[in-house]
Amino acid sequence: MFPKTTLASLALSLFAVEGAYVGARSGILIPFESPGTSTRDNGIFDYRQAIVEAHYTRNKHLDNLITFDCNARRITSDECADVELPSAPFFKRQGLLLANPNDSQYPAVISIGSDSQNFTVIFDTGSSDLWVSNANGCDDCKGYQAYNSANSSSSHAVDGTFKIQYGGGATASGPIFTDTVDLGGWLVVNQTFAAVTQRTGFPYINGVLGMAYPSLSKLGAPPFIQNLLAQKFIPTDEFAFKFSPPNPHTLFGAINPGLFNGSIEYRTVNTSLGYWQLGGGSLLSGSDVVFSGLETIFDTGTDFIYGPADQVKAFYDHIAGSQLYDGTYGLYTIPCSAIPQVAFQWDGGAAWKVTQTSFNLGETQSGSGQCIGAIAGSDFGFGNNVWFVGRRFLINIYSIFSFANNLIGFATLKDPPP
């Protein structure tokens, strides 16, 4: 249970008597590596990145619906094995591999195994499992970091097979293992994860560390942060995100009051679907409430804010000069000179703003004067009024997620994005 290494990114440590909490006093701080977005460095919208992410996000949540029903025994085990999502007219995957597999994400580094195999993964509140690529028998894993169980003396195979099956032929599947996972120098033993030998249709992800509730787990294992708590590395199973510069990071087991002003607005999570989900949401454009009574699911694995296609269309109808840019992916343009002031609000609380810079995904092409808005229309199968709120919202706030109390908290950053 003691730290393997001392890292600059690790908060001040406290070691106590046997059986007591032995983790980091101020939590375990993990910095993001070269975070990316759907906007290129030259300010132009990266269409290719956006559609790859749209495909992944849509399919992830469609598959989560099936996983939840399987875990809740709403459908039989045979039906779970046979179910297949309908194909959808998303991008042709060939030719869309990205130079950096995590270009449009906020990746972080973990190590797995006694030999410290490094993996750049996404910390994803929209899923619950840890998976990486497999070094053995994976023709699709070329160019990705891959786990070699033979090189780790602490690796143990687990019965069963992990499988994510998406529409349009996208799959990730492979054997299940337990092994030691190193997070910022702290070694979590017997962590269950998958090392996939097939990863068709996942063109930009090295791996995923899921942070949603266990009811979304295909592995039937506790999410990683709950093992951090059980092995007494953190005092509480909460975590916080700061996506804005400088120093974007995740903090496990604590919050940092030095990064925000005022009090934290906490809201109770609806855990019925296994997500970090809040009801009573409203979407504002300026001072106008465009929609109310929204169910909002917080997904750190996506850059966008996704809503049902009809509601997103109605939202952009409120914005002068907006136009449909791509009907397949629900993308809209807005005049770059008139970016709207957008905000979310829950149960009459504070209006948490999405800055104009955050809402603007970039110009469609140099000199066009038309920019892509961060709200996109896509139907994930959850029905009306369900929105998926990604990093374009979260970058504007300090956010806290608490398993123990089933709460999400919002606070005002001391150094907000422009």
TrEMBL record:
<feature type="active site">
    <location>
        <position position="299"/>
    </location>
</feature>
<feature type="domain" description="Peptidase A1">
    <location>
        <begin position="106"/>
        <end position="411"/>
    </location>
</feature>
<dbReference type="InterPro" id="IPR001461">
    <property type="entry name" value="Aspartic_peptidase_A1"/>
</dbReference>
<feature type="signal peptide">
    <location>
        <begin position="1"/>
        <end position="19"/>
    </location>
</feature>
<dbReference type="Pfam" id="PF00026">
    <property type="entry name" value="Asp"/>
</dbReference>
<keyword id="KW-0732">Signal</keyword>
<dbReference type="GO" id="GO:0006508">
    <property type="term" value="P:proteolysis"/>
</dbReference>
<dbReference type="GO" id="GO:0004190">
    <property type="term" value="F:aspartic-type endopeptidase activity"/>
</dbReference>
<keyword id="KW-0645">Protease</keyword>
<protein>
    <recommendedName>
        <fullName>Peptidase A1 domain-containing protein</fullName>
    </recommendedName>
</protein>
<keyword id="KW-0064">Aspartyl protease</keyword>
<dbReference type="InterPro" id="IPR001969">
    <property type="entry name" value="Aspartic_peptidase_AS"/>
</dbReference>
<dbReference type="InterPro" id="IPR021109">
    <property type="entry name" value="Peptidase_aspartic_dom_sf"/>
</dbReference>
<feature type="active site">
    <location>
        <position position="124"/>
    </location>
</feature>
<dbReference type="InterPro" id="IPR033121">
    <property type="entry name" value="PEPTIDASE_A1"/>
</dbReference>
<comment type="similarity">
    <text>Belongs to the peptidase A1 family.</text>
</comment>
<keyword id="KW-0378">Hydrolase</keyword>
